């Protein structure tokens, strides 16, 4: 039977099934990219800081979204953070995932993150929803910031769904600083939008809540109406939304965004990876990453951000020439980040 194809909407959805596939890909974990009118990924300052934190509370904050409050076991002071920071969370299964801090930076004794449950994701969100409970101890690394709030007098913040997590502290900071700011917060329904109660404490005239069920899918014009000259626009949400905004972005404002999904592979070409330990040889097509292909063969392969900055997926290269595509993956190194880097040609043999 031929399946009917529908035009993709702003969120990249073609139909219900593909919607969930898209959600799966962009909400699997927290993944960071900042763009300052440059396609080059900026280096992220590494923070050599890990700690075991206790889960103080797990609270439902929207449909399929829970917020976790984390604290030091002794209730002590935690490292400071700024809006846009995230934590690397080491889950009991060994998975490592990244989540934006979405609490109050002035609260030095707790961190808060929020996680949307994605049944078809990489398993991290489901593990948190189904298995992490109050009293559990989780190892974290960070906080670190790949999506800083740029100092400016005028802001437009755009959040798509769970993308509100880094944006919420930014909005609150901009408001405290007396900046001229606007927030557009989009999602499928109000029930899916976390932290509406906290936004209710801010001037409602500055906030636009748009939900697809009542307002329809927003266009780039809807989202960028307030991107006036000199405005710093900070966006976090689904990759298709970010791509739509980028395509229509005015030249006299500045765009800073955070993806929840890897950017599409550009200038890709096919190559092979040989997994040394199994001897399997896999074909990596031009439009996919080595990680995506290897993950099908080895579901437990380590990864987190899928955008080349966290280092989780780094593997040793035993032979072959690597097209290094991440700033933290220096040319000449005999390792590669399999989420972004590729072969220049032919075959790579990896220590996997
Ligand atoms: S998964 Fe983060 S660098 Fe590859």
Write the topology of this structure.
Elements: H1 16-26, E1 50-62, E2 65-71, E3 85-90, E4 96-100, E5 111-116, H2 124-131, E6 137-145, E7 154-160, H3 164-176, E8 180-187, H4 196-199, E9 207-211, H5 212-215, H6 220-224, E10 232-237, H7 239-248, E11 254-259, E12 271-275, E13 280-284, H8 290-297, E14 314-319, E15 322-323, E16 335-337, E17 342-343, E18 347-350
Parallel strand pairs: 7-8, 7-10, 8-9, 10-11, 12-18
Antiparallel strand pairs: 1-2, 1-6, 2-5, 3-4, 3-6, 12-13, 14-16, 14-18, 15-17
Descriptive tags:
single chain; 352 residues; alpha/beta; Elongation Factor Tu (Ef-tu), domain 3; Rossmann fold; Ubiquitin-like (UB roll); 3 domains; 6-stranded antiparallel β-sheet; 5-stranded parallel β-sheet; 8 helices; 18 strands; 18% helix; globular; binds FE2/S2 (inorganic) cluster; metal ion binding; 2Fe-2S
- Which strand-content bin applies to the residues? 25-35%
Number of domains: 3
CATH superfamily of the largest domain: Nucleotide-binding domain of ferredoxin-NADP reductase (FNR) module
Small-molecule components bound: FE2/S2 (inorganic) cluster
Give the termini separation: 40 Å
Mean pLDDT across every amino acid position = 84
User: Taking Cα atoms only, what radius of gyration do you get, to the nearest Å?
Assistant: 20 Å
CATH architecture of the largest domain: 3-Layer(aba) Sandwich
Largest sheet: 6 strands, antiparallel
Named CATH topology of the largest domain: Rossmann fold
Helix/strand/pairing category: alpha/beta
**What's the level 1 CATH class of the largest domain?**
Alpha Beta
Q: How would you spell out the order of helices and strands?
A: HEEEEEHEEHEHEHHEHEEEHEEEEE
Runs in which pLDDT lies below 50 for 5 or more consecutive residues are 1-46
Q: How many extended strands? A: 18
Protein name: Oxidoreductase
Domain 2Fe-2S ferredoxin-type: 271-352
InterPro entries: 2Fe-2S_ferredoxin-like_sf, 2Fe-2S_ferredoxin-type, 2Fe2S_fd_BS, Beta-grasp_dom_sf, Cbr1-like_FAD-bd_dom, FAD-bd_FR_type, FNR_nucleotide-bd, MRET
Domain FAD-binding FR-type: 48-150
């Amino acid at each position: 039977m031929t399946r009917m194809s529908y035009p993709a909407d702003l969120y990249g959805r073609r139909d219900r099934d593909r919607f969930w596939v898209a959600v799966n890909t962009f909400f699997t974990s927290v993944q960071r990219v900042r763009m300052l009118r440059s396609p080059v990924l900026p280096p992220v300052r590494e923070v050599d800081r890990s700690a075991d934190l206790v889960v103080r509370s797990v609270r439902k904050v929207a449909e399929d979204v829970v917020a976790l409050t984390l604290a030091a076991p002794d209730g002590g002071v935690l490292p400071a953070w700024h809006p846009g920071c995230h934590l690397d969370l080491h889950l009991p299964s060994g998975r490592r995932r990244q989540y934006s801090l979405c609490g109050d930076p002035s609260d030095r004794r707790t961190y808060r993150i929020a996680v949307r449950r994605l049944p078809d994701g990489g398993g991290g969100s489901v593990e948190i929803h189904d298995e992490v409970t109050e009293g559990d101890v989780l190892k974290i690394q960070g906080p670190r910031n790949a999506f800083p709030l740029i100092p400016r007098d005028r802001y437009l913040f755009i959040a798509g769904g769970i993308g509100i997590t880094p944006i919420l502290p930014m909005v609150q900071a901009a408001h405290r600083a007396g900046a001229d700011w606007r927030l557009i917060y989009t999602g499928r329904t109000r029930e899916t939008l976390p932290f509406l109660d906290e936004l209710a404490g801010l001037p409602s005239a500055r906030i636009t809540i748009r939900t697809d069920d009542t307002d329809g899918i927003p266009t780039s014009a809807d989202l960028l109406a307030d991107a006036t000259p000199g405005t710093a626009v900070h966006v976090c949400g689904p990759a298709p939304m970010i791509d739509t905004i980028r395509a229509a972005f005015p030249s006299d404002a500045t765009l800073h965004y955070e993806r929840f999904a890897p950017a599409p592979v550009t200038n890709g070409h096919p190559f092979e990876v040989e997994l040394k330990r199994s001897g399997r040889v896999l074909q990596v097509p031009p439009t996919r990453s080595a990680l995506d292909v290897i993950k099908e063969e080895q579901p437990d392969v380590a990864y987190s951000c899928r955008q080349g900055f966290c280092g989780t997926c780094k593997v040793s290269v035993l032979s072959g020439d690597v097209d290094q595509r991440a700033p933290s993956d220096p040319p000449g190194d005999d390792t590669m980040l399999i989420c972004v880097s590729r072969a220049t040609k032919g075959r790579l043999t990896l220590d996997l």
